[in-house]
Amino acid sequence: MQDCGSGQVIAEFGLAALWLAAALAVLQLIAGGVALSRRGDALGAVVRPVAIVQGVLALAAFAALVAVFISTDLSVKLVAANSHSAKPLLYKIAGAWGNHEGSMLLWVTIMGLAGGFVAAVERRLPERTMMATLAGQAFVSIGFYVFLLFASNPFTRLAEPAAEGQGLNPLLQDPGLAFHPPTLYVGYVGLSIAFSFAIGALITREVSPAFARAMRPWVLGAWIFLTLGITAGSYWAYYELGWGGWWFWDPVENASLMPWLAATALLHSCGVLAARNALRAWTLMLGVVAFSMSMIGTFLVRSGILTSVHAFAVDPRRGTFILVLLAIYIGGALMLFALRAGSISEGERFAVTSRESGLVFNNVMLSGTLGIVLIGTLYPLLAEAMGMKVSVGPPYFNPFTALFVVPMLLVLMVGPLLRWRLDNFGRVRSGLIIPALILVLSIGIAIVMAPGKMLSIIGLALAPALAFASLLPLRGRRLSRVKLPLWGMVLAHFGVAVSLFGMACDSAFTVEKLVAVRPGEAVRVGPWQVTMKSITPIAGPNWTALEGDLQASYNGTAPSLLRPQSRSFWTPPQQTNESALLTRWNGQLYTVLGDEAADGRWQLRLWWKPFVTMIWLGGVLIALGGLLAMLGHVASDVRRVIARSKIAFRRERQGR
Amino acid sequence: MSAMKAKHQRLILVLISMAALIGAGLLAIWGLRGNASYFYVPADIAANPPAADRAVRLGGMVEAGSLKTAPDGVTIHFVVGDGKARVPVIYRNIVPDLFKEGSGVVAEGKLGHDGTFVADNLLAKHDEKYVPREMKDMTEDQACKTVEAVK
Amino acid sequence: MSAAPKIPERAAIRTSRWALWLPLALFAGFIVLVLIGLLRPASHDVASQFVGKPLPEFSLRAAADNRPGLARANMIGGKPRLLNVFASWCAPCAAEAPQLAQLAAAGVEIDGVAIRDHKPELAAFLARYGNPYTRIGADDVSAVQMAIGSSGAPETFIIDAQGVIRYQHIGEIRTEHVPMLLARLQEAGK
After folding, report:
1. Do B125 and A81 touch (CB under 8 A)?
2. ipTM
3. Are strands C133-139 and C110-115 parallel, antiparallel or unpaired?
4. How far apart, in Å, do the first and last CA atoms of chain A sit?
């Protein structure tokens, strides 16, 4: 109880910082709004510093929460409910954002920091648009501050400090998972910048290639984090759940996929706006939609309306609160769009055969996919309103998203080869002969190897052709002179092909075995011979486990050891199956230990999954491509700014 | 041709994107009617059984004393009841640890021609995993998995 | 192609204008849908088939040293009462303890059924979170729980003076549920 005093101060300090940050957000909104009017130029100078300080204060509040979790101050309700003094330090820290209140604080922190960062470095936009953008960012932040302070205060104290924390769900005790939510959050909230930019542009009606160039790095940055977050989340679900699957079309997964789809579309339409000053209103709408999807996804998960009443009891107050925020922000932004977009002049025109058309196709198909996922995710809600209980899973999502994704990937082979504005298909035809041949050939091979599995065949056929076609934009160029954004595009598109190949191989060639074996017995799964050597009990810091010693030998080669576990945690009591994986260049052996069957046999579930790792490798390549593109764009922007200031400097000197 | 296109390019783009989005919406609704899996309790199955090849979810209580493991060690048989009707279920997999006789369960699968429900997946209901609002120490991701487990 | 009817310029603009409102309209639809979802009493559970039926015959031994066991006969007569299905291993049962205490303080008689529990752990649980129960029966095989159609813990039933189940509350009792339960108890007493 001695450290109670210092803990006291930290929590109160955090709360104070949070209140101050909220107050500054209000100031930022007012000052930004006034700066937009004629007379308000004096106040305009305040906006940027205020945005920066607001970000710093939000960070301080978050740091305070982390500190309270590290010291396990059990007089704070959130700590008592979510932490435990016996927990490893890493998970104490992760516990700070592993709950509703903490994750909302993380949300406003990232939002504040992003806004502050924009205020600090963004000099390319007209100042008026900038003011409108920062005011918009503050407007959105305020709602979340109010939500935090009044409906989910993370620093609330207990009247009586708890004797011990309620522990952390053991499923969360995983380093991958500890850092997965923050990654996704950076992505979600990073899109708020695009949202604010779009609002700023709608208010001032200044939509230009310069605007797109200013917005693009922010979109790219958020998109990279989203891509990584989704990839990591998928891999986490794959190895942690022990079900052998890597994507379950769960509402929570969909909640991360939807902003990604919108952000991907935005990224591409941003490219059109930056290069050709076309798709102006459309880009603004995507800017609004992308962050709206982040908020809707978070809302659907947080409010619990899509999940079971027992897992996340619907809290009508909290749910309604977020819903009101959504209605104000998304409804307001869309209303602004409807009122203003009509007066935004039409962009440059382009012919049917042109790079723009390809990107329009990409955007339409991505939006279609988004529609399919969104409707599928909301359908259980709709059905429930009509008195039916349904769940929607892969039988719907897989074929219906493919209807949009497959044509998009086909066009993806051609699009990057086309010139802007007007092109002649005959010019690129010769380059497409090889991909077409690969496509036909691999369709044949796929039909033979995976007969009857329609989606797998399509994937297996598309992937190699797409991989080849994605490299074609480099043809005829001197590689040393290829600019970074082009490298980025090639790499990202190649990553799509790699990932697709992994998905198709997993669904076409996975071999699964479910058996009950005695120690000493061997099982054959695909090319593997797996022998159960023994079962041993072991103990961890807050769990005990039964561990199976498996010997696996690939086609008779030297055996490797795998140790799947069946773990029992005691705070709270819960059991998890820790799978054990063996990775080769051409796939993974996946093993799960089940229960003891009646007669001394143990249940074993084994999979041989050829090339399954390509799924996540592709995801990483896509993110890496995004990173290259972002670096390239930022570098060229910086160069442009330096050149401009040099010219200005020279002019100034000559003028004197 | 191209002149007219140019003049109405914006309109054409709007129409194309709207057509695609509305198409997606209609397609989605059509697809969902055929592919969403409905929730049944045993009484529903008795009154109005779903088509044999249709994926559905069956929710109810695992009847005490009905759980049997087949000689292969991995196939289990049990009966799900709701006080009005009973449905035999067969499941070949590692059972979730919360799955016990006398506890609630949701089985995902199909009703076989012989009236036995063939489950592909079992979701044991709450008990230890049941986390209330005050203590839900989960992130979305974790929630996703738990939801998978308790839905 | 030149003979193709020209689309009047104004119609084009009108269509575009109309399309601009489409996103907002779709979003409004979403809000309505979600509102319906939020406002509905959201119970996705297998509701008890036993509401409106009399309690089955049962008799449970005492689960704790300082409270008697529970049988059907104990629950008949007098005022309507609550039957709370709980367990010491169930985290949400701890969360509802203050609300149960509040109900007990309001003069409601609460009987407990401890599911698959052990005496020492249960004693510790009651010592830590309070003991609002008049009687606690030990249901080691979930027999009573099953017989009254409860599929998990905690669940709370309202039993009227005739021993008929009048209401089933699934999940923990939160602060906002207390007035509702009191109202239902009163109604059951009429």
Report:
1. no
2. 0.80
3. parallel
4. 71
